[in-house]
Amino acid sequence: MVSHSKRLADGLALLASQMARDVLIVPAGGLDADPEDKDSPDGGGIGTSYDAIEAAVNKVVDAGLACAIFTDLGSATITVEMVVDMLDGEPVRFIDAPLVEATVAGAVAAQQGQDLDGVEREARRAISAFASDRAGDDGDSAETSGGDANGAGYSRRVKVADKAGLHARPAAKLAEMAADSEEGILVNDADADSAMSLMSLGAECGEEVTVSGDRSEKALIDSIADAIAAGLDE
């Protein structure tokens, strides 16, 4: 992740690593600190460094991994595109999407074992997750999700146990569980395999949610419902 601010990049790396413990996440933020400037902001200058970005990308590639790159503002994007051009042929991709949402969604997708295409898809999907106007929901969709006219659906209604609700870590853990679904599982009207979609629900502690899907995946639906009811934020 590339940011003009070292603190922003480092903080976002810490956040994403909480939800994607097995993913190599490398921040490349700001400019090197000026040793002569005792008041140098942000642990260094505000800006982007070609060398720092190239080193971060090489760290991922040298580990034998594909590399997805996310940026914050214009000049960061320009610098990243230069780095990608110089690494032609390597499994490196710049994904043009909002830095925070895309990084979190992409990291969770990588944790689930998805490839670069999957990471990009989830990063872009994260944008629409928060673009939806939840204020317009009538609240009844959760009751009917997962069912059909033939009664082939199955659902469980449970209360959210985590004190902070379905925030980052619980959402990421649920998404990882739901990634095993072949039919698709919903929590209310959110795709359970998308951490950002789950977070967009804003489900608070004590709030009831409905976990639903195809009856053929009853065991997985029960596991997810039980996890929500027991709490996931260790």
TrEMBL record:
Top-level taxonomy: Bacteria, Bacillati, Actinomycetota, Actinomycetes, Mycobacteriales
Subunit description: Homodimer. The dihydroxyacetone kinase complex is composed of a homodimer of DhaM, a homodimer of DhaK and the subunit DhaL.
Sorted UniProt keywords: Kinase, Transferase
Protein name: Phosphocarrier protein HPr
Organism of this sequence: Corynebacterium pseudokroppenstedtii
Keyword check for Signal: no
Underlying gene: dhaM
GO BP of this protein: glycerol catabolic process; phosphoenolpyruvate-dependent sugar phosphotransferase system
Gene3D superfamilies the UniProt entry points to: HPr-like, Phosphotransferase system, mannose-type IIA component
Catalytic activity: dihydroxyacetone + phosphoenolpyruvate = dihydroxyacetone phosphate + pyruvate
Task of the protein: General (non sugar-specific) component of the phosphoenolpyruvate-dependent sugar phosphotransferase system (sugar PTS). This major carbohydrate active-transport system catalyzes the phosphorylation of incoming sugar substrates concomitantly with their translocation across the cell membrane. The phosphoryl group from phosphoenolpyruvate (PEP) is transferred to the phosphoryl carrier protein HPr by enzyme I. Phospho-HPr then transfers it to the PTS EIIA domain.
